[in-house]
């Protein structure tokens, strides 16, 4: 079960990086401010999910004890 949460955590962290890069590319190209705002909101949401999954994984595995 812990390997599932580890995989899910890594997946969400990868999505955070992907959304961050998309936002930076949008900003560099002078894209829409609305798109940048939506990407920032999505990144913050994904980061919150990643933190919850990291804490859940640590709780399930005993925190490395």
TrEMBL record:
<keyword id="KW-1133">Transmembrane helix</keyword>
<dbReference type="InterPro" id="IPR007667">
    <property type="entry name" value="Hypoxia_induced_domain"/>
</dbReference>
<feature type="domain" description="HIG1">
    <location>
        <begin position="1"/>
        <end position="65"/>
    </location>
</feature>
<keyword id="KW-0812">Transmembrane</keyword>
<dbReference type="Pfam" id="PF04588">
    <property type="entry name" value="HIG_1_N"/>
</dbReference>
<feature type="transmembrane region" description="Helical">
    <location>
        <begin position="39"/>
        <end position="60"/>
    </location>
</feature>
<protein>
    <submittedName>
        <fullName>Twin transmembrane helix small protein</fullName>
    </submittedName>
</protein>
<keyword id="KW-0472">Membrane</keyword>
């Amino acid at each position: 079960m812990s390997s599932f949460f580890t995989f899910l955590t890594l997946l969400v962290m990868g999505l955070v990086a992907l959304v961050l890069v998309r936002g930076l590319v949008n900003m560099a190209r002078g894209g829409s401010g609305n798109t940048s705002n939506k990407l920032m909101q999505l990144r913050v949401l994904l980061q919150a999910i990643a933190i919850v999954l990291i804490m859940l994984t640590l709780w399930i595995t005993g925190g490395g004890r």
